[in-house]
Amino acid sequence: MFSSQTSSFQDSIDVEERDEFDSEDIVGYSQKIQLNCYYTIYLYQGTSLTLIDSSLPSEAEPELRTYISRRLSKGALLGGMGNIATVELSLPEQAVGCYCCLLEQERSPEQPDADGNGYVICFMGGSEKGLNLFRLELDKYVQGLHSSLQTPELQNLETEVRPYLSRWYEESVMHIYRVVQLVQSNISFLLHAALSHTHVEVTNSDERTKADVSRFIKAASLQGLSQQDTTTASLCKAMSEDTQSDVVIDCSSSPPTLTNTVSNRFCDGWIQAFLNAAERCNPFLLRQILENFKLKAIQDMNSLKRFVRQAEMSHYALFRCCQFLQGCGNGDVLLQNARAEHSDLPEACNIIAVLDEFLSEQTQA
Q1: What value does the CA radius of gyration of the chain take, rounded to a whole number of Å?
Q2: Backbone dihedral angles phi then psi of residue 134, each to the nearest 5 degrees
Q3: How far apart are alpha carbons 300 and 260 in whole angstroms?
Q4: pLDDT band (50, 70, 90) for residue 58
Q5: What letter does residue 365 receive in the DSSP assignment?
Q6: Which residues contact 112 (CB under 8 A, 6 or more apart)?
């Protein structure tokens, strides 16, 4: 049983070997690369697009405008919702991932029928598959531009809008990479904190580093990944009942010092995958590894719940529970979740108490 668990775990972290990542969709994970990124903003009025600003080469921008016009005519761009596709432009990369979003202007009393008027924001770089991994971040980043676009005739183009658009890749995509670079092999402590809903405090650092760590913890947590909201809710409940100190990252020294840290074999097993992807400067691969990490954690939680139900009727199933917890390397987090989720089921609580005692004995041994 241990060998099959180990094989499954290895499959989940060896993303470089999986067919879905063997294409050129996620570029550069075999070597260190510097990705070219571009932005464009158009004024959209009625059915016409007017270029406001773009970092694309002059020959590529009209091609993008034709593509956007076609999408708008088909109703494929909805206000406030990003659309991601592959576009072929006159660029060194030829085909790139393109994120587009229509920001509709607020209606005014003078223009009550100004439906569809607004700005079209486009971010280009990497691949369609890669950008899809950061769809939520890109949506949020575009919404952050909304207030800056209310200035008449965009008089703040050079002072606010252009700098903001130029930073889209650094701010929306690179935060996971920066956190891995910051903590290196200590990334396992942050992974464990995210799984167990332990607060992470960053001291003696700039605001961007604090924001990066906060976003990493949120991205690594299981919120929204499980099929039922009870999994995340029960984890939160478990952490509120257990007294555990905040993890502290002190950035006054380089590398930073981490205190009150907890990890386990499961989280430690992902360290090298994160370091390898960071060494290759590939934020898309890093995000995919993070998603695989969460998916494996959810699968193990579901497996334990199934074993606990079976153990209520079978001593052999209880033995299998013990084997599973010993082999998965994530027993502390799984039991914490199970204890909270089954708190109103006496038989299940008795099973979990036995498993908790078993795991404690194994840890001491």
Answers
A1: 24
A2: -120, 25
A3: 25
A4: very high
A5: -
A6: none
